[in-house]
Design goal:
- The complex is a heterodimer of chains A (247) and B (789).
- Chain A contains 7 helices and 10 strands.
- Chain A has 247 residues and is an alpha/beta fold.
- A 6-stranded mixed beta sheet of chain A has the order 6-7-8-3-9-10, with helices on both faces. A 4-stranded antiparallel beta sheet of chain A has the order 2-1-4-5, covered by helices on one side.
- In chain A, helix 4 packs parallel to helix 6.
- The relative contact order of chain A is 0.18.
- Chain B is an alpha+beta fold.
- The two termini of chain B are 29 Å apart.
- In chain B, a hairpin with a 7-residue loop joins strand 3 and strand 4.
- In chain B, helix 1 packs across helix 9, helix 7 runs parallel beside helix 10 and helix 15 packs across helix 24.
- Chain B has 26 helices and 20 strands.
- In chain B, strands 3-4-9-6-8-7 form a 6-stranded mixed barrel.
- Chain B has 4 domains: 198 residues, no CATH class; 196 residues, no CATH class; 202 residues, no CATH class; 182 residues, no CATH class.
- The chains are: A alpha/beta (247), B alpha+beta (789).
- At the A-B interface, helix 3, strand 6 and helix 4 of A face helix 1, helix 8 and helix 12 of B.
Chain lengths: 247, 789
């Protein structure tokens, strides 16, 4: 049996959480039509740490939005637990987001007039299997900053709160849009460590989209996107730890 | 819960805008609670009082009804009870040298079984002595009189000592004026006094005859149904007037006040809450635009549209709730002073200062309803936002045409800042229209209301100064030969001119429409009672034949110049039950329905000798004249125009202050709208303004753009406000005509009213611009430009 065949077999044995089939996406920006995705196919596996890499405008954010159920494809299917979420009504899509997905944004998107703790509570109130807010604050190292408003925190601290808020619902998949994009190197590493811990300790799927190739080193798999298409997929046999990531 | 906290904090952060919105709602709710609760208290107290004191269903005034005729009145089908009394207006001496003081003596029959009709509520002792009296409580209070004191009254030319046995209030004199033309009660000059019926009949030398009859009806019978029978039955006894309870002046005034206040208590809050709702709509619309990423985030987490909409509706609910609380509290504490104000005019017992629970419910419903409506309308776009789209900056709206290109000459007139301002106005059309509407509304309200602060007084005073040109009117006890009456009058101190007058209660009919008026018989060349036509030119002569109607009478009858109307009076003979007269002219007057004829024509029409029942006198010595007629036997009443004017001026004080409150509210609305939209506009454009500051523009130069924008909208709003003010004035006049019979305000807004309105709105624009300047000065250019779009 060849090495590639072996890999495929291993992959087939993994549980597919979400499958993207023939997805295209067109946007109308005023009078201009933008073809963001031109036909994308791939699967995301249970407990996987997936990094989607690509330059600006390649379509990676669009993929994340579609996976997260905050945008819908023009064509194609998104299969989550045997259900095509590309065809469901807004109400069901909201239920999907509520129960299954956590989001981390590049610019944190914390609610400015809620404290760190309240921002996390905002998400945890939505889930019956929510994680403990105080434990999460402990985990992200901000137990003493729970009562601080976003404006009273650094960017790194805000992003950590944003991650805590995303995982508070205990979602199946954690989707992160350039989570280190607005942070300095050492703060970025701290954030990546929290994400990795969530992935390994809770066996949850983490998908990161970034243009930072360095982060690809810690992924189980890296999808390269170019001009709205998957350029290539690289399976990482020996992912590095977050502390070893360099950019 | 967390989202609620967010709502609270957002409201707190933008507190100035929300407070002004809340104050608008609070002002409306204040009016609802203060006026609503007071009007209900007045209504409930009046209803209780009328029932307990058995206010009659109809009132008649006759020359003399013998006691023996009473049983025939009781036998009229539908009449339940008849009560006959004697009334007499007696002058009181020595209480006040400046004013003529009158007590209406009303007979009281102690032997009447049970509670009589129009029963007085008494505090004090029984009427035991011959001249014991119960006197109106407000009269006692005004003159600081008490039980045991004594007064001297002139009755039939004799000075009679009246012993005060107690105080009394009457359901017929809740609003106590001696004559409806007095308009406002003057407790110093007029009061009522109950005297034992035997004592009064002896004093008046009218044993076993009555001049005042009250009726109560059996269930199912109405005044209109019984009027004909009562007229016929009373005619032989010199019927002077017959009116239903609803036309009793006091009853009518209480009802008008209740209706007026009730209507105001509902219409004003809706107007104010409606304005607040529009302001909230604009604010929420802006918040939704500003919080697009937050809405996207919430949707991304799985918050439903309903949860997000509910969150934003909280903004409106919080504003509405606070407005309701402030309005209810302020309204609640104002009920007592309002009722105190009522008691200056209406003598009613036990007016409750409690706020009825359903009124609180209505207040909450209005405040929360309009708050929710405004917030919902503003927040609705949040529902349409796709989460992914919400995370991106909105696509700039396509530019459809540019005014500067369409009207190229503007480039020559306007600076680049002026062009920016003009484009701003045209791009945010909804907001611009709202500001314009706000200025228009405020301008209209101020222009319509400011002149009213003086107009009411002017109208009433002009009745005395322009129409009734005499100084004193003497009403005679019995008609006298005109020439003799005039000669006698001219002998009085200071008399420069005297004119006899006929005043006859009449019913004028045209086809099936009727109107009860006082028909005035004037000399053709009258100088002391002037009639003006529509153009305010004096009508030189009263026509020799035919009748002049004022427009209240003509409108009610549907009569026009040249029409024939039918007149019936207590003096008509049986053969001439109704006499046909041609309408010669219709004149404009602001108060009371009236009809005028030549005095000789009236006498001839009714087959009366050349007599008069009143004399109008112009005198240079008013005090001397009053002293001279003080003891005259044949004089029933003395009307002194100066005292009437003084009384009206005093009474107008509270009316004027209410009008000024409305003017202040109009200015507050203007400020709330202009300030809020200015704040919204500033927050929308702060990046733009910060950029201009970074480019090197001074604060003043940046403000110029905003100021220019507002002055254009101000000018447009004021121009639109002129027709709106006329419309508002017309509506107010119609409303007043509906509540006050035979009263109309002059139309047309004086120039000073327009100026005051423009000044009020200008002050609001200046204040907003001043506040905006402060904000532009403190703009953090780095922070603003760093903010993500």
């Amino acid at each position: 049996m060849s090495e590639n065949q072996n890999k495929n077999q291993q992959e087939n044995q993994k549980d597919v959480v979400l499958s993207i089939q023939g997805v295209t996406k067109e946007y109308k920006m005023g009078e201009v039509t933008v073809q963001a995705l031109r036909g994308v196919d791939f699967s995301i596996y249970q407990g996987e740490f997936l990094v989607i890499l690509g330059p600006s405008g390649s379509g990676k954010s669009t993929i994340l939005n579609i996976i997260g159920g905050i945008d819908q494809p023009s064509e194609g299917h998104i299969i989550y637990k045997n259900k095509d979420i590309s065809k469901i009504r807004e109400k069901e899509l909201t239920r999907y987001r509520r129960a299954s997905v956590g989001f981390v944004f590049q610019f944190y998107n914390l609610i400015p007039n809620l404290t760190a703790k309240e921002n996390i509570l905002l998400a945890s109130e939505l889930s019956p299997s929510a994680l403990s807010v105080s434990e999460l604050l402990e985990t992200i190292g901000l137990a003493d900053r729970g009562d601080h408003f976003p404006s009273q925190m650094s960017g790194g601290q805000q992003q950590r709160v944003a991650i805590a808020r995303a995982v508070a619902k205990n979602p199946e998949i954690l989707l992160c849009d350039e989570p280190t994009g607005a942070l300095d190197f050492s703060t970025g590493i701290q954030v990546l460590k929290i994400l990795k811990d969530f992935n390994t300790e809770r066996n949850k799927t983490v998908v990161i989209i970034t243009h930072n190739a360095g982060i690809g080193g810690m992924a189980d798999r890296v999808l390269y996107i170019k001009d709205g298409l998957i350029d290539r997929v690289v399976v990482n046999e020996t992912p590095v730890s977050p502390e070893e990531v360099r950019w | 819960m967390i989202l609620f906290k967010k709502a609270l904090r957002t409201v707190w952060r933008g507190k100035a805008a929300y407070i002004s919105c809340m104050l608008l709602i609070a002002a409306g709710i204040y009016m609802l609670v203060a006026l609503g609760a007071s009007a209900r208290a007045l209504s409930a107290s009046a209803a209780r009082y009328y029932k307990a004191s058995r206010l009659a269903d109809a009132f008649a005034s006759v020359s003399a009804l013998p006691a023996g005729a009473l049983s025939s009145l009781t036998q009229i089908d539908g009449v339940d009870e008849v009560q006959a009394r004697l009334t007499y207006d007696a002058r009181i001496v020595a209480l006040n040298a400046e004013k003529l003081i009158w007590l209406r003596l009303i007979s009281y029959d102690k032997s009447y079984p049970g509670i009589p009709l129009n029963a007085p509520s008494v505090t004090g002792f029984e009427l035991t002595g011959e001249y014991d009296v119960w006197i109106g409580q407000s009269f006692l209070d005004t003159h600081q009189l008490k039980t045991g004191d004594e007064l001297t009254a002139i009755v039939e030319g004799r000075q009679i000592p009246l012993h005060i046995a107690g105080g009394a209030n009457s359901p017929e004199y809740v609003y106590a004026v001696r004559d409806p033309s007095d308009m406002f009660p003057d407790q110093e000059a007029f009061g009522i006094a109950y005297v034992d019926i035997h004592a009064l009949s002896l004093l008046l030398n009218r044993q076993n005859t009555f001049n005042d009859i009250s009726f109560s009806f059996e269930n199912g019978y109405t005044f209109d149904g019984l009027k004909q029978n009562l007229n016929t039955a009373l005619a032989p006894y010199g019927l002077i007037s017959l009116i239903a309870r609803k036309d009793l002046f006091s009853y009518n005034m209480v009802n008008s006040e209740i209706k007026n206040d009730m209507a105001m208590s509902y219409s004003v809050p809706i107007l104010f809450a409606g304005m607040a709702s529009i302001v909230l709509y604009l604010m929420l619309k802006r918040i939704i635009e500003q919080e697009r990423p937050q809405i996207g985030t919430l949707k991304t987490f799985g918050y439903t549209n309903f949860e997000i909409l509910a969150h934003y509706i909280w903004y409106g609910l919080i504003t509405g709730l606070l407005g309701a609380i402030v309005g209810i509290l302020l309204g609640g504490v104002s009920v007592k002073p309002m009722l105190d104000l009522y008691t200056r005019y209406f003598t009613l017992p036990d007016m409750s200062t409690d706020i009825p629970p359903d009124l609180i419910f209505i207040a909450l419903l209005v405040a929360l309803g309009f708050g929710t409506l405004g917030a919902y309308a503003g927040a609705r776009p949040a529902l349409r936002l796709n989460p992914a789209e919400a995370m991106r900056p909105p696509t700039p709206p396509p530019v459809k045409g540019d005014i500067m290109k369409q009207l190229p000459f503007l480039q020559w007139i306007l600076t680049s800042r002026g062009s920016m301002a003009l484009r701003n106005i045209l791009r945010a059309k909804a907001r611009s229209a709202f500001i314009m509407a706000g200025v228009m509304f405020s301008f209209g309200m101020l222009a319509a209301m400011c002149p009213m602060t003086t107009m009411m007084g002017d109208i009433i005073l002009s009745k005395y100064s322009k129409v009734e040109a005499y100084d004193v009117k003497l009403t005679l006890k019995s008609p006298q030969a005109s020439a003799g009456a005039r000669q006698e009058a001219m002998k009085l101190p200071g008399a420069a001119m005297a004119e006899p007058l006929r005043e006859i209660p009449a019913e004028i009919r045209m086809s099936n429409r009727k109107k009860s008026v006082i028909l005035m018989g004037l000399r053709q060349d009258t100088m002391l009672y002037r009639l003006y036509d529509d153009e305010k030119h004096s009508v030189s002569r009263v026509p020799e034949a035919g009748i002049i109607l004022n427009q209240f009478t003509a409108d009610d009858l549907g009569a026009r110049r040249g029409d024939a109307v039918l007149i019936s009076t207590p003096y008509n003979s049986e053969e001439d039950e109704e006499i046909s007269v041609t309408v010669k002219d219709i004149i404009h007057q602001n108060m009371t329905a009236a009809a005028y004829m030549d005095v000789n024509a009236v006498n001839a029409m009714l087959h009366l000798p050349d007599t008069a029942d009143s004399v109008m006198i112009k005198t240079a010595d008013l005090a001397g004249l009053k002293t001279a007629v003080n003891d005259a036997k044949n004089i029933r009443t003395i009307e002194d125009t100066y005292s009437a004017i003084a009384n009206i001026k005093q009474a107008m004080g509270s009316y004027t202050s209410i009008t000024w409150i409305i003017v202040a509210l109009g200015s507050a609305i203007a400020f709330a709208i202009i300030y809020n939209s200015s704040a919204i506009s500033l927050s929308e454009k702060k990046r733009e303004y910060a950029t201009l500051r970074v480019l090197g523009m001074q604060v003043g130069e940046v403000c110029e753009i905003l100021n220019f924008e507002y002055w254009i909208l101000f000018a447009a709003g004021c121009l639109l406000g002129i027709p709106f003010a006329a419309f508002l004035q017309n509506s107010i006049n119609q409303m007043m005509a509906g509540y006050l019979d035979n009263f109309s305000m002059p139309t047309g807004i004086p120039l000073w009213g327009l100026g005051a309105a423009a000044g009020g709105c200008m002050a609001a624009v200046l204040l907003s611009n001043f506040s905006a300047k402060g904000k532009i000065r403190t703009l953090d250019m780095v922070e603003v430009l760093k903010e993500r779009e």
